[in-house]
Design goal:
- This protein is an alpha/beta fold and 315 residues long.
- It is built from 14 helices and 11 strands.
- The chain folds into 2 domains: 222 residues, Aldolase class I (TIM Barrel), CATH 3.20.20.70; 59 residues, no CATH class.
- Strand 3, helix 4 and strand 4 form a beta-alpha-beta unit.
- Helix 8 crosses helix 14.
- The two termini are 26 Å apart.
- The protein binds ligand TUI.
- Ligand TUI binds next to strand 5 and strand 7.
């Protein structure tokens, strides 16, 4: 299975499933569980101080002998520390998000580290391909957290037509139907975030997991459009107040201050009313907590069964 798939070959993994890099959620325990399950686990550097990230990198190597990745969030003031740690620890794969990854590609590619940027537009995909990216993650508007404005369906197909490097689709994918759909659009891999929050091995607060399990298709909203940093999260007291402040044209600095520390509050402290419960639109499909490896096997089996039966629907 997947023997001719370029993502599986490039990343040296069993299944073309990459775990989303969710700040405060994607630690060594979750990344190792996904990598041990045959996907690519990712440790999210987020805003972590250098020492904390270093501990996670040491830990993930203890928990798995499989390839894993490190995500560098380019809006973070600590992104350069994360890049230097990736170099120091020879992390096999680095993904980037929320910005232009030219400097990361230039620094890490000569060291043999594969850089795979998240892109939210075809223009950026073309640019990073020229700069030396080994693949791209085309992340659509359905995704959780910081989002672009093009849907996964439109972005995946257009990106796959525009670049030669393999495309990993992200945003709105949580089961075998999503995996197969992404492949039909030209992707050779998928990135899954929201479902992995509900992995047994994920250390996010149980209140956060239960919010996702209780969510439906209309539970998320995008705030922060006026800030230029749109973020998708489950509707709650925090998103409501944030919207009201945006409607009152609250200055950007005050909005930034109001939003700061909210993701940590939800993920670590379990404050799911005043914290930011970042989640994708696909949360309504996530119904239970189960081991990450079981999720991966289930998703692949669903896609494979569906691939064999789908021809019948056109008869
Ligand atoms: O980065 C993400 N998702 C995130 S980061 C994050 S942490 C955070 N915490 C509080 C407030 C804000 C963020 C939560 N979720 N996804 C990857 C992603 N990258 N989505 C979109 C992009 C992106 C957008 C524009 C990448 C490059 C880019 O380039 C600029 C341009 O103009 O094309």
């Amino acid at each position: 299975m997947f023997s001719s798939n370029r993502i599986v070959q490039l990343l040296k993994i069993k299944y073309p499933i990459v775990q989303g890099a969710m700040a405060w959620v994607a630690d060594a325990d979750l990344a190792a569980a996904v990598s041990n399950g045959g996907g690519l686990g990712i440790v999210a550097a987020g805003n972590m101080p250098r020492e904390m990230l270093e501990r996670e990198l040491i830990k993930v190597r203890k928990l798995t002998d499989k390839p894993f990745g490190l995500n560098i969030m380019l809006l973070s003031p600590t992104w350069q520390d994360a890049m230097e740690l990736a170099a120091e620890y020879s992390v096999p794969v680095v993904t980037t998000g929320a910005g232009l990854p030219g400097k990361v590609i230039d620094r890490l590619t000569p060291l043999g580290i594969m850089v795979i940027p998240v892109i939210a537009s075809v223009t950026l995909a073309e640019r990073v391909e020229k700069q030396g990216a080994k693949a791209v993650i085309a992340e659509g508007y359905e995704a959780g957290g910081h989002v672009g404005d093009i849907t996964t369906m439109a972005l995946t197909a257009q990106t796959a037509s525009a670049v030669k490097i393999p495309v990993i689709a992200a945003g709105g994918i949580a089961d075998g139907r999503g995996l197969l759909a992404a492949f039909v659009l030209g992707a050779e891999g998928v990135q899954i975030g929201t479902r992995f929050v509900c992995a047994k091995e994920c250390n996010a607060h149980d209140n956060f997991k239960q919010k996702i399990i209780a969510a439906n298709d209309r539970s998320t909203v995008v705030t922060g459009k006026t800030l230029g940093h749109p973020v998708r999260a489950i509707k709650n007291k925090f998103t409501q107040e944030f919207h009201e402040m945006e409607e009152r044209h609250t200055p950007i600095e005050a909005l930034d201050k109001f939003g700061s520390g909210r993701l940590r509050a939800a993920v670590v402290d379990g404050d799911v009313e005043r914290g930011s419960v970042m989640s994708g639109q696909i949360a309504g499909l996530v119904k239970k907590i189960q081991p990450a490896g079981e999720m991966i096997e289930e998703i692949v089996r669903e896609a494979s069964d569906l691939a064999s039966s789908i021809g019948g629907r056109f008869e």
